[in-house]
Amino acid sequence: MKLFNNHIKRFLTLAVIAVSITACKKSDNPNDLPDVNPNDYAGKIDGYESSDQIFPQNLVAYWSFDDTKNELKSSSAPTQTAGDTFVAGLRGKAIKLTAGYLYYAKQFDAFKTDKLKSFTISTWVQIANNGSKRTMLLQLARPGIFDGNFDFRLNTQSTSTTFLGIGPRFSAVVGSQDNLNASLSPTFGANVWTHIVLTYDGTTGIFKMWANGVDVGSYNNRGTGNNLFKAYEPTEFIIGGNYNAIGKPVNTDVSYAAMTGTVDEFRIFNRVLPDAHIKALYNLGKAGK
What we know:
Elements: H1 2-24, E1 59-63, E2 80-88, E3 93-104, E4 119-127, E5 134-141, E6 150-154, E7 169-171, E8 176-178, E9 189-201, E10 206-211, E11 214-215, E12 236-239, E13 256-257, E14 259-269, H2 275-286
Parallel strand pairs: 5-13
Antiparallel strand pairs: 1-14, 2-3, 3-12, 3-14, 4-9, 4-14, 5-6, 5-12, 6-7, 7-8, 9-10, 10-11
């Protein structure tokens, strides 16, 4: 009987130890989250099926160039165009400019002073350096003034085949602020799609430049106070040039030429996109989504 009781005690001791080990074992799901079905993510990139799913509530301007030159959020057609043709794009169609531009002689509500504080500009472009003229990819133009509220400049006056200078400039509360990717460059060329993103945070003054999913900016901190961006009114909108380059000269400056290159999937958001979403736009675009 004593031997039997000893066996029982041993069994109970081992049972208690087993229960204790089980109770102390770290849970694989401490927050009791629901199971994830891998099929829900099949065919997705960074969790998305399409670039259209990236912050749609903050998308304030969009040009798809799928057989239309209209800005699709406001259904705005260009006032004047030159040297523009539709070609096969990264996703659907794109607009090819040969010494060309798209000019919208209107004040877009989304770009008014009280609405445009922070922003993200995302676009895909095919362009090569030409050795003589700069390219104004986009200008939020101020009528009768050479410099716009925002100038999306590419330093294509270079002869380099390995470095594309991205030199955006914006009007500040007082004066202006210039930026340049001084050391990093994306892969680029007349037949190479390059994804360029510019972000500006109006609460911190931080400006960033991204190319092909990489932060290539060297002068990110624009400061605060008088250095903050200001969207003066009225404005007009130009893709591929400034006033001098589209035949509406305001001075004798000839440093810019109407654009020669191809543009696709032009998006403007009224907020700074998180880094992961900028990379998602790049990865989705590469996949034609």
